[in-house]
Amino acid sequence: MEFYDKEYGLEVWGDMACFTRPELKVERVSYDVITPSAARAIFEAIFWKPAIRWEVTRIEVLNPIQWASVRRNEVGAVGSMRSQQIYIEEKRQQRNSLLLKDVRYRIYARLIYIPVNQRKEDLRRETKDENPRKYQAMFERRASKGQCFNQPYLGTREFPAYFRLLEEGEVLPPPLAQDRDLGIMLYDLDFSNPQNVSAMFFRANMQAGVINVPPRNSEEILR
């Protein structure tokens, strides 16, 4: 069996977005563009199985980067069934958020098939008809119909993402004609050691609206 992978493209857009910088703990400040981890989450919202994983390869920025500042009242406590009541007046906090508005991207990712002997799941779950093309067909069918397992979002769940599958051979308008050094950006989280989940970063550089995302095992990934 040939364990090949295939790249797919999605056009995603939304009214607002917030790809929060992890180094800022109190105020929410977004990165200038969507992060690879947020792009991966959109693909996974459409289709995911233990037999595959998504690796983002490229991000194209289509709309100009625009900002919006929002000040909101939030409750600085988490309620639970065991805890006592929360008095909003005592726990109210006013916080600022620096968000993106009117965003539109083309995101590309490879659907990588994981052979059964490389998975952590029970090997007895293997099926005779399991092959990469089966999962590719499932994703193509779902994405072309606009189906998803859960609503994809742009950084935070309050900002829904709308999407469409890019067809092969489709003539696409060029991305934003702008170069920008975006600095160190969050790449993804490393869950290889569940006892010590760590963040991975990379140096993001936008050239003519395009950000090329390095592979997960690349030397460009900072851990």
Topology:
Layout: E1 6-17, E2 28-29, H1 36-46, E3 52-61, E4 67-75, H2 88-91, E5 92-113, H3 132-144, E6 153-154, E7 156-160, E8 162-165, E9 180-190, E10 198-206, E11 210-212
Parallel strand pairs: 2-5
Antiparallel strand pairs: 1-5, 1-8, 3-5, 3-11, 4-5, 6-7, 9-10
Give a structural overview.
By secondary structure, the chain is mainly beta. The protein has helices at residues 36-46, 88-91, 132-144; strands spanning 6-17, 28-29, 52-61, 67-75, 92-113, 153-154, 156-160, 162-165, 180-190, 198-206, 210-212. It has a single domain, classed as Alpha-Beta Plaits (2-Layer Sandwich), CATH 3.30.70. It contains three helices and eleven strands; from the N terminus they run E-E-H-E-E-H-E-H-E-E-E-E-E-E. Strands 1, 2, 3, 4, 5, 8 and 11 form a seven-stranded mixed sheet that branches. A hairpin with a 7-residue loop joins strand 9 and strand 10 (198-206).
Which characteristics define this entry?
11 strands, 40% strand, 223 residues, Alpha-Beta Plaits, two-stranded antiparallel sheet, seven-stranded mixed β-sheet, mainly beta
